[in-house]
Structures are given as structure tokens and as C-alpha cells.
Design a protein that fits this description.
The chain is an alpha/beta fold. It has 2 domains: 212 residues, Rossmann fold (3-Layer(aba) Sandwich); 55 residues, Alpha-Beta Plaits (2-Layer Sandwich). It contains 11 helices and 13 strands. It has a 6-stranded mixed beta sheet, sandwiched between helices. It has a 4-stranded antiparallel beta sheet with strand order 11-12-10-13, sandwiched between helices. Helix 4 packs antiparallel against helix 5. It starts with a strand and ends in a 5-residue tail after the last helix. 37% of the residues are buried. The structure holds adenosine-5'-triphosphate. InterPro entries: AAA+_ATPase (IPR003593), ABC_transporter-like_ATP-bd (IPR003439), P-loop_NTPase (IPR027417).
Length: 292
């Protein structure tokens, strides 16, 4: 079971700031989405509304065709894990958190949960406030994945984990998603690390939608041009340059803008290599706005 999401003209205002600004977005079910945005761009606000942590006041959100707020069917089936550690309750033990998840989540897989706790070495008999930051993140990930919710959202929830644990998490997420397809939204600042998981990318900035595209087509919005320095310079003259690196006589220049067929033929002629742009470079370019 997978849930799609339809968002229409969604606006969220806090005193002095519009966190979400007339956002319209349709996400099909059964894909892994990357939700990218700079600090304060509205990611957590958006995910909290989709997860029915807050009521929508302007615009609409439909998950699997229904509004999620105070909708029991949906709240059991939508799982949002936030980095802020919603699971960390004074006096609560890891075992207690797992028990609650087991009761609440219709799709809970106990064996899988135990496998994840072992993998990430989470001590189950410890109070949650005594866990290290990485262990708390791992507990969040365990609850997020083992719930097998048709809509699973992880909001920076793996940020506290060290690199080997994060990579183990990416592998296990992909493996479990293939075995149990569902809609997964990952919000992250570790863009390059997670990019290979994303089927589609949603970029928001100042609460507005900047891009929603297949990851590959987004990466084709520009190119990394590599080859002899002089030829690379000639080829990229007049293009929007996102960054460059030089190593001896070889240069790599990342440009924004589609490279047409004729230009590609010229590049091949000049011995230049073209490859898609790193998602992070595009993200920086698309969100730099007035703040740069
Ligand atoms: N409870 C609140 N009261 C007032 N303003 C808020 C509240 N929550 C969020 N904001 C503001 O709304 C905007 C969006 O915040 P949000 O937490 O959704 O961004 P984010 O993209 O998740 O940021 P980050 O990447 O830093 O976690 C920010 O300007 C933030 O200061």
C-alpha cells in the first residue's frame, strides 16, 4: 500500500514569517522523494502538516484522497520521524517506545525492528534520555522503517548518526523499500550522500516550490565539463558557471543550462567529457536567491 499526496495552495503563516507560501504540489505514491531546502525554507512545517501534527488553515492537503488532520485511518498510516526527537520522553525506555509503535502501527514488523536495533546497536533496556544522539537517531530510524507506513517521512532523522551507520541505513532503506514499496520522503542537508536514493526531488525555498522533477532530469539541467583547461574555458565561455576545479592542465567546470546536441558534438570534437551535474551544485544555484 502506498499513499499519494496532493497539496493545493497551501499557506502557513507564523507571526512575522510566511513559512509556506501558496504551495501546490502533487506526489504520486510509491516513490522515494528528496525534500531539499535551505534552513528555514519550510520543510519541517510542510512535513508536520502532511503528518497531521498541525491543522491546515489555508489551502488543502490530501493524503490518499483525504485530509489527514484528526483522521484516524491516516494518522496510523502516516509516519513522520523528526530530528528534534519526538520520541524522547522523560522517563520512557526504548522498550516502551517500541511497544507503543507496535500497538499504533498496523504494518509494524517486529523482526525487522529487532534487526535494525542490532544493526545500529541501540540498547533497548536504556532510558531514551540516556541515549547518545546517534542512538536516538537510530531509534527514530528503526521506528520509521519498521512501521512500514504507506507514507513514511524522515525529517533529517539520521543526521545524528555517524557515517558508517548512515550508509548502513541508506542500504537497508533501499532494500526494504524494494521489498515493501511505499511513499518515502526524506528531507536532508546531506544531499550528495542521499541523492542516489531519490527518484524525484522537491526543492523549496522561502516556502515556495522551486523544482519538482525526476532526479536524473534535474541533473541534466546542467553539466560538468572536463578536459584540457584551454578547451574547457573556450567551451564554457558565456555559460552560467556554478563552480570550477583545476588539476594540472585539466579543468572541470560545472555549468547551468541545457547543452544542446550541436554543443555536445563540439565537446566531443574537442575531447571534452560531459556529465550530469551534482545535485548539490544545482541545489545551491537554485536556492541562492538574494541571500547569496
Ligand atoms: N512555531 C513557530 N513559530 C514561529 N515561526 C516558526 C515556527 N516554526 C517555524 N517557524 C519559522 O518558519 C520558517 C520555516 O521553518 P521550518 O522549520 O519549517 O524550516 P526548515 O526548512 O525545516 O528548516 P531547517 O532546515 O533549518 O530545519 C522559519 O522561518 C522558521 O523560523
Amino acid at each position: 500500500m502506498t499513499f499519494g499526496i496532493e497539496i493545493q495552495d497551501l499557506t502557513v503563516r507564523y507571526p512575522g514569517v510566511t513559512a509556506i507560501d501558496s504551495l501546490t504540489l502533487k506526489l504520486e505514491g510509491g516513490k522515494i522523494y528528496g525534500l531539499l531546502g535551505r534552513n528555514g525554507s519550510g520543510k519541517t512545517t510542510l512535513l508536520s502538516l502532511i503528518a497531521a501534527f498541525r491543522r491546515v488553515t489555508e489551502g488543502t492537503i490530501l493524503v490518499d484522497g483525504e485530509a489527514p488532520f484528526e483522521n484516524e485511518r491516516l494518522t496510523q498510516q502516516i509516519c513522520l520521524i523528526r530530528e528534534s526527537g519526538d520520541l524522547v520522553v522523560e522517563g520512557e525506555y526504548v522498550k516502551g517506545i517500541l511497544h507503543r509503535a507496535r500497538m499504533l502501527r498496523p504494518g509494524w514488523d517486529e523482526e525487522f525492528a529487532q534487526r535494525l536495533l542490532d544493526l545500529f546497536e541501540v540498547p533497548v533496556n536504556r532510558g531514551v534520555t540516556k541515549l547518545s544522539r546517534g542512538q536516538r537517531s537510530a531509534l527514530g530510524i528503526t521506528v520509521g522503517l519498521a512501521s512500514r507506513a504507506p507514507l513514511t517521512m524522515l525529517d533529517e532523522s539520521y543526521l545524528g548518526m555517524d557515517a558508517p551507520s548512515r550508509y548502513a541505513f541508506y542500504d537497508v532503506l533501499l532494500e526494504d523499500y524494494i521489498a515493501h514499496p511505499r511513499t518515502i520522503i526524506l528531507s536532508t542537508h546531506l544531499i550528495e550522500e542521499v541523492a542516489r536514493l531519490f527518484e524525484q526531488v522537491v526543492i523549496i525555498d522561502n516556502g515556495r516550490l522551486v523544482a519538482h522533477e525526476d532526479t536524473e532530469s534535474l541533473r541534466m539541467r546542467g553539466a560538468a565539463v572536463v578536459g584540457p583547461a584551454a578547451a574547457v574555458d573556450d567551451f564554457t565561455t558565456g555559460m552560467t558557471v556554478l563552480g570550477e576545479q583545476r588539476l594540472g592542465g585539466t579543468k572541470s567546470v560545472t555549468v547551468y543550462g541545457e547543452i544542446g546536441r550541436d554543443a555536445r558534438a563540439v565537446a566531443a570534437d574537442w575531447g571534452l567529457e560531459l556529465s550530469p551535474v551534482a545535485l548539490q551544485d544545482l541545489f545551491v544555484h537554485l536556492t541562492k536567491g538574494d541571500r547569496a
